[in-house]
## 1
Amino acid sequence: MSPRQRQAPRSHVIYTIAIIGFIYTLHLVIPMYSNSSFLSLFADEKTVGLIYMMGAALTVLGFLVAPAIIRRIGNYRTSMWFVALQAVLFYGLMTASSPYIIALLFAVEMASASILGLCLDIFLEVYTEGTKVGSVRGLYNSVLNASWTIGPLIGTMLISGTGNYRSTYIAGFAMLLPLAYLMHKNFPRFRDPNYMHLSPLQLVKHVSHNRDWVGLFFANFILQTFYAWMVVYSPIYLHNVMNFSWESIGLILTIMLLPFPLLQYPLGALADRRGEKGMMALGIGIMSVFTILLSFMTWNSVPVWALGLFLTRVGAAITEVMMETYFFKTVSPRDSAALGLFRVTRPLAYFFAPLITVVGLMYTTDAYLFAVVGAISLVALIPILSIKDAK
């Protein structure tokens, strides 16, 4: 692809976007690991999976229409509208009593949050200097993943002793207030790039002509499937099968997620100097092997499970930051549609992840589902080994 035209690097703006990203992610993560348990109060396990699939379908649709919205009203206005929509949806989850309304609110919230994340990607992409993509993406991912580290701990502390899952939505709602303030303060005069206008068919052709993108998108879909399955299934498994308390689960999840804020910034800087392909492959290998080994962990021990899950996330953290760096080195800020398509792999994973559980349980036990997910993750090595390092 042709070299990207960048605005002059503005480190303070990048740090501001990172802070905004931290708050945005925290408002999602506080309830995220208890979402499936909250929904299970109103629906059985299969229905919970269908609700996630409905949310994924709306998210895919949202990513297809979001570039047109952003092109028409601008990235700043789009982001502010979706912050407001998030507030409405969280208020509904805090107060609604009808299972049907709760399911609808949850599905729409999945889509709304994803589009807001796309807006933040565009802000960051415009202000990133071309030679420092790995460093900036590593920093951004590290800050966002700090939210992923503390969010589950906050969420489980709010639930512990009360069983009130709605308190996590109250906390998430509160995070939207500083989020809206910071975005309004810093970006009302944001200058949008001249976004490319592509129909869905043109977009597919545009992406498919880049063989490296095709391989990267497929590998990212597998990574997102790993995340989607773990988010929905692992808390239920730890609570219902391994009989851990929510306090213990919060501690396990916090330790599990430490590799993301600790590793991704230095790894992103390393990618700027040495390339991404080899590290991507290494990350997939580590993630897959240790996920398979979880199937054989029968000890009801917080340190053992925390260590096992931590090692899977070492691999995932390496893979994620290398994929992000690779993609954002090769995409233009004008190409919001391709950026949206890259993010579509996340909601699409929520279609596939529940099928792993449904089909897997026909042939094996709960514990060996980890082995199934680990084996599926290894498939990502095929497209990763076929791509060329970004320049």
Note: The chain has one domain: 11-384.
## 2
Amino acid sequence: MALVLDGVARWPRKSMAVIGSSLGGFYATHVAEATGCRAVLLNPAVDPARDLTNHIGEQTSWHDPAERFFFQPEFVDELRALQCPGLRQPGHYLAIIAKGDEVLDWREMQARYAGADLRLLESGDHALSDFETHVPPIMAFLGLD
């Protein structure tokens, strides 16, 4: 995260935005809170330190099960250190949350981003397979329409 924040240190805050999905949404929240920029979150992870504790050890890559990696306990500590206690500027966030998310609990996401511009989808999935339908509201939220 230090590298990310260093990389965006000179970006103009008023026109800067971050977008993240799942764990990327957790990271995007941290960047937005640290910089005051806008953020678009797609089924964002709310408490990855809690959720990933059960996955410490050797894992296989989702996209290539032949590829293996080791998820270390220190990674959970690093995630815990990035947890933001609350949103300082909820209006800087657009959260697109699918009730049909098979990985994360939509109720946790909704509660975490209360006060933000929430798009609560009655169905959908974790990958937001219908992502293209969400592009226009994302562009509008970012002032790029």
Note: The two ends are 30 Å apart (CA to CA).
## 3
Amino acid sequence: MKTNIFIIFFTIVVVVYGLVNSYIFIKGLQAIPSGSEWRPWYIAGFWVIASTFILARILERVWPCGLTGVITWIGSFWLAYMLYFILIALTVDLGRLINHFIPVFPQFFYTDYQKTKLVALFISMVLVTLVVLAGFINARNPRIKRLDLHIVKTVAGIKSLNIVMASDIHLGTLIAKRKANRLVADINSLHPDLVLFAGDVVDEDLAPVIKNNLGANLAQIKSRLGVYAITGNHEYIGGAEAAVKYLEEHGLTMLRDTAILVDGRFWLVGRDDRDKSRFTGKPRRELADIMQPVDRTMPVILMDHQPFHLEQAVAQGVDLQLSGHTHHGQMWPFNYITSAMYELSSGYKKTGNTHFFVSNGYGTWGPPVRLGNRPEIVQINLTFE
């Protein structure tokens, strides 16, 4: 049954991917004169590059190697190019439609219409390249976001807790040694009492993580009270049990629908990802069940990867919920979609006595590009009465 669902899903993705690329391809081809020697190069080059993303998703699972890594990088960048090429193409077609009824284009556009289309193609390629380059530089330079929060509870022996949180790291082919080294160095520079990873620590495929020995980087994190993590949807896409086992072997304590008392002073609750049922057929536990042993006179910190149903945390007396998953759209204009989908797509809000924070995430999925938001590590100075 699950195999059939995967085949249907994969088929839909490939068909949609093919249609979008075909639209971009036709628009580009129309700009190149029919007798031009560049036409065959464009046709071959376009479809070679456009096929790399699908090819990379297959090869990463069956043949992880240097060549596969190169193909993955090309395919991932192409996704970003594809997004902005389709936006330009749709905008141009909308402008042509408007111009058909209400002439708005200047007459010189039509003096040599073929040349106009060729110039427009060149400008589009340069513009998209600059946008993608800016997004790549942004994605490679995460910020450290600082947050001061207060919980109206008394904690014996301490008045504050230095928490460092990150989500959506997506360790794998694109987020590899260099980014993992920086993640660990930045976390350790903050001298955390507690480190929390709110899901999607690894990307779908564990093979590149093992090949690059990225677990060894995570093992170097220094935290007085430990490093805790939860599963995200990407752990389940690639196989949660293998991912959890690998992360636990490298020093992370994985919380899977579990509540634990840390340092005898506060409760830490970690939920399995809500996509667990989709990939295993087994539902995750209800938050009310997980919270049964929790002493709510103590601070309660909850990690839940996908920020749905925030009212449940409020009803259960959670003091602080940390989430990720949204990437805040990762690339403009997807932030408008995530803002419509989630009560909180990015940043902080408070409902009743419950603080919520949804991180933009540290890494990227698909294109190694971020536009309209910054990747981040979050330092939370949590104070008590």
Note: DSSP finds 13 helices and twelve strands in the chain.
## 4
Amino acid sequence: MSLRQANKLDRQRRIVANASRLFSSIGYEKTAIELVAERSNVSPATIYNNFENKTGLLLAVLIEEGEGVQLIGKKIIDQRQPGDAQVIFRLLTLYVDHPMEFMNKSCWRQALAASIASSNEKFAREYQNVEKTLQTQLVELIHHLYEEQLFISLVDPQSLGEVIWNNVDQMFTDFISDNDMSLESLKETIKTQTQALLTLALRVD
């Protein structure tokens, strides 16, 4: 990587970091491109050139957050002990805890709408790829646990992983749509429902 490319990447990361802080603290609507530019010590034109518009910038924040979750998730999986089914719950807790460190519910509502309706195909596609990567991470973990004979033989590990992911994904969407629902309540519901699924799948010695 050339010095120019390195400087550009560093500038983009600085812009995304500042945008993330502003989105979370004052909300999407009040976060102007000009304010992000001022905090990042760049011109508004630089942000438009790199992210096209505020929606592209928001999606870039989501991508950065998702990539961070993926790396932490990998560490959780790598450090697990063989036969430890509780790693599933640690991973799911990460998937809902980490996003809320970056943005509040209001911002996440804007973010999910942007990921579906955005005209910014590049960032929308990259965000969807990050989501698929996290789903794959969970599904692959279920496959490994199946190979370690934690589940009964009739279990399809691919389907089980996808069902758990889809359920958590839907519950997170419901959570950000409900201003009164707490993060702790979400995590407790995820734990209860996932445990119900695993009770049907886990081998009983």
Note: The two ends are 54 Å apart (CA to CA).
